[in-house]
Design a protein that fits this description.
This protein has 801 residues and is of the alpha+beta class. The chain contains 24 helices and 32 strands. α2 packs across α6, α5 packs across α8 and α19 crosses α20. InterPro entries: Ntn_hydrolases_N, Pen/GL7ACA/AHL_acylase, Penicillin_amidase_A-knob, Penicillin_amidase_dom1, Penicillin_amidase_N_B-knob, S45. It holds the Pfam family Penicil_amidase.
């Protein structure tokens, strides 16, 4: 026994020693002194209890070089994934499985656009944002050259190349793509238009319906500018291979002093992004003479897209505007290299793309472009199955080089609401709702996007005629006529990805907007009182209630024979009295979502097929159309086309209920009073390497169950399915609350942790806090930071004492 005990103890201590050796090789450096080149003076970096760097520098160049260094040591592999997605080079690192993803992004034109933007960037005159970006890139490269590279590179047998301005633009391009809902939606809607009777489409909310609430505009007084410029798998399966998350939606609201307890502006933002490890945002606090900023940064981007100074704050949500059209071209019968256009012909442009593949010979493939843009048939399977004609993507983002770096620099460095608006104007795509509040009591919301003017007859959700110019945009809406609200009389501004009201020019701009559920809940709650503060507003930000779902549930209950619930009276009663809450001990959501899936499946799969039905469930169209689909009595969707009989609403809903009760009984037991929502919900934050077992156990971050829901303020989204298990795919990527009565007491939380390095103590330390609805401080007070920080890193110029 003594020998066995000795061996076990020896193995225990050896494993600890081995771990410490590995950790020493790969962990970030949070304290001590590092000598690096390029600094003018010493930079001090204090890491708080959650690993947030507080950077104290004597000039901008040193500050951004330091930011690049610490950002890289915590998130270098995330930067690697982001730049490779945007540059179409995932296969080079991860292998042939990602080849289709590389082909897709190269065809779409993001790498080409990044090259264009970078070439123009290099030609630009020197500017503060250019100097800061170059310093940031130097800092990233200093870490690549001399720091502890993350363990992922060792496991992949690879090493990172230097970071470049093209990488920055590739990342910006990828993040812009994640907003392009048209690619997921327009082929499906076009198929419906071509194969179904118009009566089917009337039941869907392809366009915003009159009953949907809109974001009200409130334009400031000014002279408008003139309109001067004219102009074999599914895509979903392909995008699921991406090793980085997609942006999904967001909430933000800013409350004016007239509605707050402090008499100062109250600012909130929670961006909704696909859950992943690491999470999207990297927090950093930068101080140098004349500048103090606390920001949330994307991997590889030097300026915080969301952030605040002591005098103003900027946040974001997705605008969800329609900025991408698909043009179906006609080939010249006499020349396959030409398309028909305006009674003549235009040449199809071609370019050859060269894709390196890990462990294999490189692949070349041809990208074709019509007059309207790249032809997408070969990379979006839904398009290839729908038509043999070339279908080209016309996308606002690729029409002009991005000025995102200039815009985000100016948003952080602005000193007034007017300067912020000038920065917002620089964002042409993707469409963003920029939210604003300041110490002077101003609140604002701007829709930042270059909005095309389409001919009145155009339905931008279906493929357009590429053989003429009749469907093409005819100009651009001046920024001053974009949706916006500046200091509205309501005392708040809010955006939750829903439809903005009619613009100043009378246009009701089309998009992929979500219904009013979240915005309406925010608006009603904020309007109900005038004593909002940093504590009581948390209840709203964490609320998991949807008022629309109980109405759907009651309409389904009323449609069926109540005897079907015999033996399941507990869940029947819960569903009847449901207030839309998704608390973990609730049982109503457990039946509602299962029943809803089987009802929709019984209605739609005979018309759409299983594959397109599942595609439907992944689009904005599903969320927006459910109330009409469920409540419309005479909908043609109720009849099953595969049978001779004509099915009724009651038959479909009853059959769906029978299936649901049977499956839930098998899954959760016969006592429906114990069908707790908690048992049906799973949350795991996947790492890029976690797709391969057993690496998932090492790199993925598992979290306790969360109140998963569809379209509650605290949106924790999942894909509707028949399994009875709902894996939460996306949700708040941070939760920010700022009261301008005391900016230094602002709070936030991240879904997992600050660091993407497995050996960092900040890898997953916020995961449980996030689930439980806790917050942590966003420190800005210098004495508090320096007196309480347990870790201090000093950066010195190489060769100095």
């Amino acid at each position: 026994m003594k020998k066995i005990l000795f061996v076990l103890l020896a193995l225990f201590f050896l494993s600890i020693a081995g771990y410490q050796i590995i950790r020493y090789q790969y962990a970030p450096t949070y304290q001590g002194t590092i000598n690096i080149t390029g600094l003018e003076k010493v930079v001090e970096i204090y890491f708080d209890d959650f690993g947030i760097p507080h950077i104290y520098a004597n000039n901008p160049a040193d500050a951004y070089l330091a930011l690049g260094y610490v950002h890289a040591q915590d998130r270098l592999f995330q930067m690697e994934m982001m730049r490779r997605v945007g540059s179409g080079t995932l296969s080079e690192l991860l292998g042939e499985d990602l080849l289709d993803v590389d082909k897709f992004f190269r065809t779409l034109g993001i790498p080409k656009h990044a090259t264009w933007s970078s070439e123009l960037w290099l030609e630009e005159e020197e500017s503060p944002w250019k100097d800061a970006t170059n310093a940031y890139i130097k800092g990233v490269n200093q870490f690549i050259a001399e720091g502890n590279l993350p363990v992922e590179y060792t496991l992949l047998g690879a090493s990172p190349r230097e970071f470049t301005i093209q990488d920055v633009h590739s990342i910006i391009g990828y993040m812009s793509f994640t907003f392009a809902m048209a690619m997921k939606t327009d082929p499906l809607i076009t198929k419906m238009y071509r194969t179904l009777d118009p009566a089917y489409l009337k039941v869907l909310s392809i366009h915003t319906l009159p009953e949907h609430h809109v974001i009200p505009n409130h334009y400031p007084d000014r002279i408008p500018e003139t309109n001067s410029i004219n102009i074999e798998e599914t895509l979903t399966a392909l995008l699921e291979k991406l090793p980085v998350p997609l942006l999904e939606g967001s909430n933000s609201w800013v409350i004016a002093p007239s509605r707050t307890a402090s008499g100062e502006v109250l600012f909130l933002n929670d961006t909704h992004i696909g859950f992943a490890q690491p999470s999207v945002w990297y927090e950093a606090h930068i101080e140098y003479p004349g500048f103090s900023f606390y920001g949330n940064h994307l991997a590889g981007v030097p300026f915080g897209l969301v952030g605040h100074t002591r005098t103003h704050s900027v946040g974001l949500t997705m605008f969800e505007n329609d900025d991408q059209d698909f043009f179906e071209e006609q080939i010249n019968p006499s020349n396959p290299n030409q398309t028909i256009y305006n009674y003549g012909y235009t040449e199809i442009k071609r370019r050859t793309e060269f894709i390196p593949i890990k462990g294999k010979e490189p692949v070349t493939f041809e990208v074709k472009e019509s007059i309207h843009g790249p032809i997408m048939n070969d990379v979006i399977p839904e398009i290839g199955r729908l038509t043999s004609n070339p279908v080209a993507s016309w996308w606002v983002y690729t029409l002009e080089p991005t000025r995102a770096l200039e815009a985000t620099y100016k948003l952080a460095h602005s000193n007034s609401i007017q300067e912020v608006e000038e920065a917002v104007k620089l964002i042409h795509a993707p469409g963003l709702n920029v939210m604003y509040g300041d110490k002077s009591g101003n609140i604002a919301w701007w829709a930042a996007a270059k909005l095309p003017i389409r001919p009145e007859h155009v339905n931008s959700k279906i493929f357009l005629d590429g053989s003429s110019s009749k469907d093409e945009p005819i100009g651009w809406i001046p920024f001053e006529e974009n949706p916006m609200a500046i200091n509205p009389p309501s005392g708040f501004v809010a955006s939750a990805n829903n439809q903005p009201d009619t613009l100043a020019n009378g246009i009701f701009f089309p998009g992929y907007y979500y219904p009013e559920d979240r915005w309406d809940r925010i608006a009603k709650t904020v309007s109900s009182r005038t004593d909002w503060d940093q504590e009581n507003v948390k209840n709203l930000q964490l609320e998991a209630i949807n008022e629309n779902h109980p109405i759907n549930a009651l309409s389904m209950i009323e449609a069926v024979d109540p005897r079907l619930f015999e033996g399941f009276e507990a869940v029947q009663a819960a569903l009847k009295s449901w207030d839309g809450s998704h608390d973990l001990e609730n049982i109503a959501p457990t039946l509602y979502y299962k029943w809803l899936y089987h009802t929709l499946h019984g209605m739609m799969v005979d018309e759409l097929g299983q594959e397109d039905f599942e595609n439907f469930l992944r689009t904005f169209l599903y969320i927006r159309s459910v109330p009409n689909l469920i409540r419309t009595l005479d909908s043609p969707w109720w009849d099953n086309q595969s049978t001779e009989a004509i099915e009724t609403r009651t038959e479909i809903i009853e059959e769906a209920l029978k299936k649901s009760l049977k499956e839930l009984k098998a899954q959760l037991g016969s006592n429906s009073s114990k069908w707790y929502w908690e048992k049906a919900v799973v949350l795991e934050h996947p790492h890029p390497l976690g797709a391969k077992k057993p690496l998932d156990r090492i790199f993925n971050v598992k979290a306790p169950s969360v109140p998963a829901n569809e379209e509650s303020v605290n949106k924790l989204a999942f894909e509707l399915n028949d399994s009875g298990i709902y894996r939460v795919k996306s949700g708040p990527a941070m939760r920010i609350i700022i009261d301008f009565a005391n900016v230094e007491a602002s709070e936030s939380v991240l879904p997992t942790g600050q660091s993407g390095n497995l050996f960092s103590p900040f890898y997953s330390d916020q995961a449980e806090m996030f689930v439980k609805g806790h917050y942590r401080p966003q420190l800005m007070n210098e004495s508090m930071i320096k007196n309480t920080a347990k870790r201090k890193l000093v950066l010195k110029q190489l060769g100095t004492n």
